[in-house]
Amino acid sequence: SKIERIQPNRQVTTFILMVILSQANPAPIRYSVLEETESGSFIAHLTKDLGLEIGELKARSARVVCDDDKQRLLLDRQTGDLLLREKLDREDICGSDEPCVLHFQVFLETPVQFFEGELLIQDINDHSPVFPNREMLLKIPENSQPGTVFPLKLAQDLDVGSNGLQKYTINANSHFHVLTRNHSDGKKYPDLVQDKVLDREEQSEFSLTLMALDGGSPPRSGTSMVRILIMDVNDNAPEFVHTPYEVQVLENSPLDSLILTVLARDVDAGNFGTVSYSLFQASEEIKQTFSINEVTGEIRLTKKLDFEQTKSYHVETEATDGGGLSGKGTVVIEVVDVNDNAPELTISSLISSIPENAPETVVSIFRIRDRDSGDNGKMICSIPDNLPFILKPTFKNFYTLVTDSPLDRESQAEYIITITVTDMGTPRLKTEHNITVLVSDVNDNAPAFTQTSYTLVSATDTDADANAQVTYSLLPPRPARALASLVSINPDNGHLFALTSLDYEALRAFEFHVGATDRGSPALSSQALVRVLVADANDNAPFVLYPLQNASAPCTELVPRAAEPGYLVTKVVAVDGDAGQNAWLSYQLLKATEPGLFGVWAHNGEVRTARLLSERDAPKQRLVVLVKDNGEPPLSASVTLHVLLVDGFSQPYLPAPEAEAAAAAPADPLTVYLVVALASVSSGGAASAGRCPVAEGHFPGHLVDVSGTGTLSQSYQYEVCLTGDHRTGEFKFLKPIFPNLLVQDNEREIKESPNCRNSFVFS
């Protein structure tokens, strides 16, 4: 199919909310396509035509919306191509209207931006002219004079322009020829012209073939048989009293309502003066909507009217006397709009959860419309005044619901916003739509004690005087612990004091017994158990397990140039010695040789390609990844990745000079690739290739979070068998070992396994 692209000059007008909301171009982007073009066909490359960057349509969740709410177009966000979702039938979409233009909008988010577009649907010659009847009966009086014109029923061709109906022809004969008459409404009518005097006694009937031709290449045609009966003389045809008739009808008029009564008179007498009425050359729509009583001339409603669909009708009527003569009349029926359509609200974008304390935030983008016209179609959009939200008109009938001030979850955690759209008709109609917005919590409140001081240990004695005087003491722990270096107790009031700073990572909880003794004789005593829980503080920065950064040779990952977007390059593995949210880790890409080529997943540290690789991309890429915990304040660490783009993994890989120098240095043959093993387990055997530095000897115990915090999703213990050659980067992952986790007093160990020579158990 042939598709034209029309590139208009663009002017862009912008205005700023908290986010930037861009207005559409004053002049829309215009394209054209032939009707019946196959679905999936290419229309235009929107990324280029809208002046956007590659990948911007996808990143900003671009969408295409048609004015008729039917998704006839498809936007490929990956390529930026605008495609046909389905075949377009010009006649189904526009009928006889020309030109046939499909209006659509392209809008993007973050920031919100709109572009208006028009798709011109070009007609093809896919319809033949069709007459309403296969045979026409025409009665002509024998005293009709040469040059008399007899209107015939026209053919209908759904195509337009040059593909529409162009002319009529009739088979050769001695008495008649046909003329094509152009009407003011753009239609072409056939007129039969008499060429010769008629003589009923000589020939009482003619059968002629009327042909309608369109202007296609090759042209299409349709035929109808014209049967002409020569009648005895009836020298007066009926004439309508008024023409045209004009009448207004409410669109909500009930069925069988009387529209008006037409009247025609014939001055002839007898049967030649008797008039019957009918609709002349009526379309199928008019036949379905109106009926006429052939005796009385009453025109009644047979189908519900809809002002939004059809605003007026031109009805041709015919009055025929008993002799076959007829007169023509016109009835113009104007449909009067009533407020029968409530406003409509369509949500285009919605955010159901907003963090508290956030600045002005876009909650929803929606469009309103009313299918009525005039005041009935004018609308007012509003929300309740007592909410911290406001409505802002954006583009045409698009509105944006935004926060008016920062939200406080502790004051109100949920809002139900009722958007009310009311028209200005009589009676007024309205539509309401409820949006529920949840306020997500932000750690903006420090813990608060319910009282300023506490008595941790207290005892009472019901005796009096010295027998009621209580002395507190710490009882010796069992087994013996250095309790005296941790806490002390006031013997008079039982207040407990910490004697040293407590380290959550070293000691999370401890307990001891406190004794209370009175001063009676003999002295009586009792004891109580005190358990102290140490709260964690964010005092440990994230530690990167893979790739290790303190080796002499950098870690190099190999990526084939044929890799698809989303290809897993490697995975950064890190842990945090803290607990809870202090150990929740997130990843982000700080620096890159070529921004946009790679991306890092925030929650798992996976480094993936963001687009297709090209020959223009540098073969050596350097990435800096930041690992940050969720403490307050947050602590972070960074790691540098070296990526080499190769044509395939079969391509020879020559290590960098610094890597060769490191390889030449003497090394322990039992070098342990624990970091490589852990990274391979975490990424599930991801397709990442390269040479990376290794960790040797005893692995620091604080680097692995066996309690399930940090990057690892659960407690792991693995048995990993490694080769003796530390330059090959090979290892063998045998199996996870779950029983008997090697965790004692919060310390982790690496033990040698008997299953292979260079085998270690990692817990």
From TrEMBL:
Main location: membrane
UniProt keywords, alphabetically: Calcium, Cell adhesion, Glycoprotein, Membrane, Repeat, Signal, Transmembrane, Transmembrane helix
GO molecular-function terms, A-Z: calcium ion binding
Pfam families associated with the record: Cadherin, Cadherin_2, Cadherin_C_2
InterPro entries documented for this protein: Cadherin-like_dom (IPR002126), Cadherin-like_sf (IPR015919), Cadherin_C (IPR032455), Cadherin_CS (IPR020894), Cadherin_N (IPR013164), Protocadherin/Cadherin-CA (IPR050174)
Localisation per UniProt entry: Membrane
Span of domain Cadherin: 132-240, 241-345, 346-437, 434-544, 559-659
Membrane-traversing stretches: none
Name of protein: Protocadherin beta 4
Species the sequence originates in: Bos mutus grunniens (Wild yak)
Gene that this polypeptide is encoded by: PCDHB4
Annotated GO CC locations: plasma membrane
Record GO biological process: homophilic cell adhesion via plasma membrane adhesion molecules
Membrane topology field: Single-pass membrane protein
Keyword Transmembrane: yes
